[in-house]
């Protein structure tokens, strides 16, 4: 994902959404932050609105006041915002090295951006970022609250919440990283209707229920993705403010809703302190660790004296993986877990041994083949059950290149990882081969067929 060296994204809405002159802007932001209540637990993640400052600035300030005590401790902000100006499939990076505001430059974390290349649904799209206010309006607040920090800015379009959650997992980091989801709530409803709608949306957010729709929030995909990640990590949400434009700067005939929500980590994780988080960051990327672990496991089974890092804290977290072996581009073994059964490191070791020596489609891997095979590790996200009336309805819900699919009929079950779309790009063909893998006829269909879809993070030795 190339980034244009020296490219700076200039302000697009300075002078309209907020003051273009630095002194006025700094004074307005400081005044808004000073009016926000002080104190409260430090958040790992925030949901904050992105309207012009007269409309939503006071609500956003309630969120950013929680970050101000972390000045000097937080060095990176991951900021996800909805696409308002372009039709966007997946998620987009800006292709630049910094964002400019009247208060100065905010550098983009290029190392983190480079690490996002593994996600097929993330592209570089300067057109998505150029006019987008939903990223920009947060930056002066962050500059005033945190001082110096780097930014990972992503505009979110037509994506699945699980894809967002996987990206957030990649960027989660430790105490140095905070996450901001940019979103307003309902749009252009009468005042009382908006209050009712926004209250329902906030109740879902506080319950960590990732079921919001686009009528409730413009940043719904990113919010739902954060809620998935928050549930897995046990984050605790807190409502800081809930208002609409009828309460701040507009009339009440057609209003826009705004909420500020903070998500804090569980007490046990908060008390680990910077030392344990720093230790975790000293490890190489997760992909390298998982690939090395899989290869070393296979090598030891063949009598080779190989070692791999096993002390990375994330290896103790629950995880479901597939390990795939290829020889000269051809499949040589693939075994995995469709559900979380054991810690991630143990799951990789288990499936590496099974892919090399127990896949019934292939003879056990020999020592002479060891150096010739390429190892691939896929980390599965949560699965989603599809609802459909017939096969045509099921096929219409499959997303080529994105979804892995689990097919189940009575006691028979099979799955294809998303990588299989490379060889079977047409949904009907994909489904036919999946049915064959489940020992069913290619044209088989029955009302009792059940389908689930999921996404993966994938690492290959040649891709690192």
**Which stretches are poorly predicted, pLDDT < 50 over at least 5 residues?**
268-284
**Radius of gyration of CA atoms, rounded to a whole number:** 24 Å
Q: What portion of the residues fall into strands of 2 or more residues?
A: 15-25%
Distance between the termini: 14 Å
Q: Which whole number gives the mean pLDDT? A: 90
Can you give the helix content as a percent range?
A: 25-40%
Count of helix runs: 16
Secondary structural class: alpha+beta
Main beta sheet strand tally, sense and closure: 9 strands, mixed
Number of distinct beta strands: 22
What does this structure look like?
The chain starts with 7 loop residues before the first strand and ends with a strand. The longest helix has 16 residues, at about 190-205. Helix 7 (about 160-170) packs across helix 9. Strands 2, 3, 4, 7, 8, 9, 10, 11 and 12 form a 9-stranded mixed beta sheet that branches. A 4-stranded antiparallel beta sheet has the order 15-14-17-22, with helices on one face. Strands 18-21-19-20 form a 4-stranded antiparallel beta sheet, covered by helices on one side. It contains 16 helices and 22 strands. It is α+β, with helices and mostly antiparallel strands and about 475 residues long. Helices cover about 35% and strands about 25% of the residues. Residues about 270-285 have low confidence and may be disordered.
Describe the structure concisely for a colleague.
By secondary structure, the protein is α+β, with helices and mostly antiparallel strands.
Distinctive features:
464 residues, 33% helix, 24% strand, 4-stranded antiparallel beta sheet, 9-stranded mixed beta sheet, alpha+beta, single chain
